[in-house]
Amino acid sequence: MMTFAQEASSSGRLITVILFTVMIAATLGITVWASRYTRTAADFHSGGREFTGMQNGFAIGSDYMSAASFLGIAGIISLSGYDGFLYSIGFLVAWLVALLLVAELLRNSGRFTMADVLSYRMRQRPVRTAASVSTLTVSIFYLLAQMVGAGALIALLLGIRPGETYLGMSADTAKIMGIIIVGILMIVYVTFGGMKGTTWVQIVKAVMLMGGAALLTVLVLAIYGFDLAELMNDAADASGVGAAFLEPGQRYGVDVAGDAWQTMINKLDLISLGLALVLGTAGLPHILIRFYTVPDAKTARKSVNWGIGLIGSFYLMTLVLGFGAAALVGKDAITAQNAAGNTAAPQLAEEVGIHFGGEFLGAVMLALIAAVAFAAILSTVAGLTIASSSSLAHDLYNSVIKRGRATEQQEVRVARLAAFGVGVAAIILAIFAQNLNVAFLVALAFAIAASANLPTILLSLFWKRFNTTGALCGIYGGLISAVGLVFFSPVVSGKVDAEGNSLSLFPAGVDFSWFPLSNPGLVSIPLGLLCAVVGTLLSKERDDARFAELQVRALTGAGAEKAVVH
Amino acid sequence: MSSSHALHEATDPPRGELQARSVTMHDDPRFKELRSRLLRFVVPMSIAFFAWYLLYVVMSAYARGLMGTDIIGSFNFALVFGVLQFVSTFGIAFWYARFANRRIDPLADELREELEEGVR
């Protein structure tokens, strides 16, 4: 049997390229259309607040089900079994925090950014600066991880392996081209289409993603006569570890025989990761600004429920896809293509296509799932770019530098420039980081969001005494502890495999690590909260009237921003 | 909204009539009832789902033997527990929406209309 890459180099690659082109053309069409309706600041930052609950729910799903989550979780399940599922559960349960505690209150009290709520009853400039620093850090880390992944992924999806060339590109050139193309497209979507264009691109992607995943799930189950138990047993047999493949412990919280210390660290690391996943989502700026794109709090609630339904069904399908890839493609074929398992889903698509309709259908299925993955990359990076540009324009430029005196036209112009700047910076950083192991940046982004953003948002809304010093200490304390602990963890330096190759960001031989956990959440989340509380009590500032006003506005929606009428 | 209109309220939300009414409203028994209804639902529910999730993660780390036991046919405890996390998430989301539609929205709308009347 030919390998995935050789297969892809024939007709499949042509179909993949055609589908990529069709999708780029369609999304650019949407962007041109949306740009005609993007005039005011509310249009640019919040898409005019006119989206329905269902539309925003699809866009929420799209922001969240990045390529890292689609290909990554299927890949983890295909290689490590059950633990990939464990990961996805944290991602899903997290939405209850957003639904019950954040979405509606944020929609009612804020305007364009996370900082609107944080600074509502505080001194504007310092708090907005802090919120903006946190927004940019989270978004750029997340963006960087997505873009570095995207470059490698596009090379893989086109089936270009080291040593080969396609359209005159080697694998390395294709990686860089991939990063540049993704970067340029996201800049175009955001600068021209604003939130309206970005949202519609995301809705289209969510429909494609759900459709593609559903089709593949049904086909995999059909091969097993819709007997899930048989599929799982087959996956366990093929994995080489047997029943343990269907249990936790292959990847997270690994038991190390004879090393009680390392076993304890591994298990604490799992709990730390679990905490960051479940508490991080409701503090991710690119997720939070989605709640401003609907007319009112009730629609924000509906959109989260749509999001929960879509994301939940998607992760349940991913379980079938991951086990399907383990059983039908096999560990060796997956790791031969990509050590992290990122191509498990496309490889499975090809295998299933061949099973039902021979080589040609295999090529078509592969191209289809590759196109879905490409769409997944594009829409998530666009969401991250608009979150960064809105914060730069609304918080830093208008509120901090111009002290709130910029006109709408000025703010939108700066937002467009900021999107361009963020995009160019992300392209350059991603090219420099392309050979580094940056997958940890996604978990770090969640940990920062959980440590710096969520506690301060909740304290703003519910603690009367909370004040400027508390907000600043909470944001910077959570941010610095999460980033600092990871910097001194084995993720950055000092971790080597049995052959002495570095498993950290820095090469082998460099070791300045002292914090044993790879995930800082277990320490940084309580620390962030503690900083916010201590900071508050150290300052005499309090404004009970302003708190009363914020709470009434958050709960009743009185004075909340209305949808734009065109 | 004209495009030359300054975004001053972005950083300094409008004080005045609505603000004064909101501050008064904060002590209104109806607002206190609204807040207490919401908190009586979301606080216990948040604690419950968080504890339920944490139990799942802690058991995944420390109760490997139990998690690996087959309980429904050849499906093990870990898989059933995991699927139950999905079921509880969907259930709580549905339950909250029903609760908010019936017990929160009508009262919130009444207070909002009263606060905004004649202000905008």
From TrEMBL, chain A:
Q: Which GO terms describe its molecular function?
A: acetate transmembrane transporter activity; symporter activity
**Which controlled-vocabulary keywords does the entry list?**
Cell membrane, Membrane, Symport, Transmembrane, Transmembrane helix, Transport
Compartments where located: Cell membrane
Organism superkingdom: Bacteria
Mind telling me which GO cellular component terms the entry cites? plasma membrane
Listed transmembrane segments: 12-35, 56-79, 85-106, 127-156, 176-195, 207-226, 270-292, 304-329, 360-393, 414-433, 439-463, 470-492, 512-538
How does this protein sit in the membrane?
Multi-pass membrane protein
Pfam short name (any one): SSF
InterPro entries per the record?
Na/Glc_symporter_sf, Na/solute_symporter, Sodium:Solute_Symporter
Q: Biological process GO annotation list?
A: plasma membrane acetate transport
Q: Which family does it belong to?
A: Belongs to the sodium:solute symporter (SSF) (TC 2.A.21) family.
Q: Which PANTHER family match?
A: CATION_ACETATE SYMPORTER ACTP (PTHR48086:SF6), SODIUM/PROLINE SYMPORTER-RELATED (PTHR48086)
The protein in question is named Cation/acetate symporter
Q: Which organism is it from?
A: Streptomyces aidingensis
UniProtKB/TrEMBL annotation, chain B:
Which key words are in the record? Answer: Membrane, Transmembrane, Transmembrane helix
Q: Membrane-crossing residues? A: 38-59, 71-97
Residue segments, region Disordered: 1-24
Name the InterPro entries on file.
DUF485, MFS_trans_sf
Flavoprotein among keywords: no
Q: Which Pfam families match?
A: DUF485
Q: Point to the regions of Basic and acidic residues compositional bias.
A: 1-15
Could you tell me the superkingdom of the organism this chain comes from?
Bacteria
List the PANTHER family.
INTEGRAL MEMBRANE PROTEIN-RELATED (PTHR38441), MEMBRANE PROTEIN (PTHR38441:SF1)
Instruction: Provide the protein name.
Output: Uncharacterized membrane protein, DUF485 family
- What organism is recorded for this protein? Streptomyces aidingensis
